Amino acid sequence: MNKINKILILSVSTLCIIGTLVLIKALFDDGGKMITDWMSAIANTAMAVAAVYAALQAKRWFSNLSYTTAFNKAAEFLAKIDQEKDEIDDAFSEIYELQDYIFAVNSGTKKTDDTVISDYERLVDYNLAKCNSMKKHLQEYNNLKRWPISRLQSNSIEELIKSKESVYCSITATYDLAKHFLLSYRGGAATNSAIYYNDLKKVLITLHHSKGQYDKLYKEFNNNSFSDYFSAK
Questions:
Q1: Do 137 and 161 contact (CB within 8 A), yes or no?
Q2: Which three-class secondary structure state does DSSP give residue 127?
Q3: Rounded distance, CA 215 to CA 4, Å?
Q4: What is the mean pLDDT of residues 208-227?
Q5: pTM for this structure?
C-alpha cells in the first residue's frame, strides 16, 4: 500500500470516528435533531474523498499506460532495425549472383534472359520502395518524442537509418543499370551496353562501400542494450 492510499484511508477513518462521536453527542443533547444534517455532511465528505481517490488512481493508471505504450513502441522500433539487417544481408547476397551473371553476359559466356530482366525490373521497384521507407522509419523514431520516454544516442540511430537508406538506394541503382545493360546488349547496342556496364561497376563499388559502413554501424548498435537507447522521462 503506498503513502497516498494510507493517508486517504486514515482520513476517512478519522472522519467516521468523529462523525460517530458527534452523532452520539447529538442523541443525548437534543434528542437527535442534528442527526440528519450530520449524516448528510459526513456522506458528502466521504463522497468527496472517494472522488479524489478515484481521480488519483485514474491519473496513475493513465501514466502507467503511457509509459507501457512508449516502451512497447521503442521496443518495436529496435526490433525493426534487427529485422531489416537480415533483409539487407539477403538482398546483398543476391548482388553477388547479379555480378557473376552480368560479367558472364559481357564476356559472352552467357546469354541474356528475359526472365532475369523482368526480375531485375521488379527488384528495382521493391528496393526503391525500401529506400523511400527509410524516411518513414526515421519519422517513426522522431515521433517517439511525443511519449514519456527519452531517446539516447539519437545521432547514432539516425546515422544507422540513413546508412540503410544508402544501401537500399545503391541496390536499386545496381538492378536498374543491370537491367538497362541487358536490354542494350540484347538489342545489339554495343556502345550503350558498354556505358551501362562501366556505370554498373562504379555503382557496385559504391554499394560495397555503403554496405561496409552499414555493417560497422549496425555492429556498434547491436553491442548496446535497450537502456542505452531509451529511458523513462
A1: yes
A2: helix
A3: 51
A4: 95
A5: 0.73
CA atoms within 13 A on the CB side of 193: 16
Tell me the C-alpha distance between 127 and 177, whole Å.
Answer: 14
Burial class (CB in 10 A: 0-12, 13-18, 19+), 193: buried
Kind of pairing between the strands at 230-232 and 149-151: antiparallel
CB 139 within 8 A of CB 169: no
Residue indicated by cell numbers 521507407? 133
Long-range pairs, 217-221, Cβ under 8 A, ≥24: 217/156, 217/159, 217/160, 217/163, 218/81, 218/85, 218/160, 220/156, 221/81, 221/156, 221/157, 221/160
Classify the C-alpha dihedral 42-47-51-57 as positive or negative.
Answer: positive
Is the separation of the CB atoms in 137 and 203 below 8 Å?
A: no
Q: How far is CA 122 from the centre of its chain?
A: 27
CB 105 within 8 A of CB 194: no
- C-alpha cell of residue 217: 554501424
Cα dihedral value 96, 98, 103, 109, nearest 10: 110
Query: Are the C-beta atoms of residues 151 and 144 closer than 8 Å to each other?
Result: yes
Q: pLDDT category, 151, cuts 50, 70, 90?
A: very high
> What is d(CA 150, CA 204) in angstroms, rounded to the nearest whole number?
39
Instruction: Give the position of cell 521503442.
Output: 74
CA distance linking residue 116 with residue 178, whole number of Å: 10
In the predicted model, is pLDDT for residue 160 greater than 80?
yes
Contact predicate 197/105, CB 8 Å: no
